[in-house]
Amino acid sequence: MTMNFLLLVSRQGKVRLAKFYNATEPKEQARVKRQVTAMVLLRPLKNCNFCDYGEIRVVYKRYASLYFIMGIDQGDNELLALETIHCYVEALDRFFGNVCELDLIFNFHKAYFILDEFFIGGHIQETSKREILRR
Predict the structure, then answer these.
(1) Model pTM?
(2) Phi and psi (nearest 5°) for 66?
(3) Is residue 43 scored above 70 in pLDDT?
(4) What is the rounded CA–CA span in Å between residue 38 and residue 92?
(5) Quick check: 52 and 23 in contact, CB under 8 A?
(6) Sheet strand arrangement including 3-10
(7) Which of 19, 26, 50, 84 is most buried by a 10 A CB count?
(8) Euclidean distance between the first and final Cα of the chain, in Å?
(9) Which one, of 81, 113, 110, lies nearest residue 97 by Cα?
(10) Check: CATH 3.30.450.60 for 3-134?
């Protein structure tokens, strides 16, 4: 599975964490953040958790007041992406003790560190939450 980007977005549309894994200019990143966020927030709750954005498949899951949005290649497994999102959320929960939006606002550097322990260059590096948090 190749991940193009990961966004953590509040229900109000504020981006709390953004990580792009391909060479994308800042203007293009801002456009992708804006359009993908709007697309996900406007989708009805009964719809499935993935949709297409150009040549990228967008996979998302809502946890409390945060949307975890991942952009993957078209041929990649959407269910694996959902499981990867869930694994990242579990690691954040273990680290912060029931993670909330404020944890990500005030400790964003720690959330990025945990994300970087999971992925290198958009590819899964480590799946053991215990091993990630031990580092």
Answers:
(1) 0.92
(2) -120, 140
(3) yes
(4) 25
(5) no
(6) 15-20, 3-10, 66-73, 56-63, 50-53
(7) 84
(8) 24
(9) 110
(10) yes
Task: State how far the Cα of 55 lies from the Cα of 131, in Å rounded to an integer.
Answer: 34
Question: How high is the pLDDT of residue 128?
Answer: 78
How confident is the model at residue 12, as a pLDDT?
96
Kindly state the tokens that stand for 84: 């990867």
**What does each C-alpha distance from 66 to 16, 24, 128 come to in angstroms?**
9, 24, 23
* Between residues 106 and 133, the one the model is more confident about: 106
Task: Say if residue 110 is exposed, middle or buried (CB neighbours under 10 Å; 0-12, 13-18, 19+).
Answer: middle
Reading the block at residue 92, the tokens are 């954040």
Is residue 3 within 8 A of residue 122, CB to CB? The reply is yes
Spatial neighbors of 31 by CB under 8 A, at least 6 apart, are none
CA distance linking residue 73 with residue 66, whole number of Å: 23
Q: Pick from 43, 19, 12, 38: which is nearest to 118 by CA?
A: 19
DSSP structure class, residue 14: -
DSSP 19-34: EE-S---HHHHHHHHH
Q: Which residue has the tokens 């944890």?
A: 103
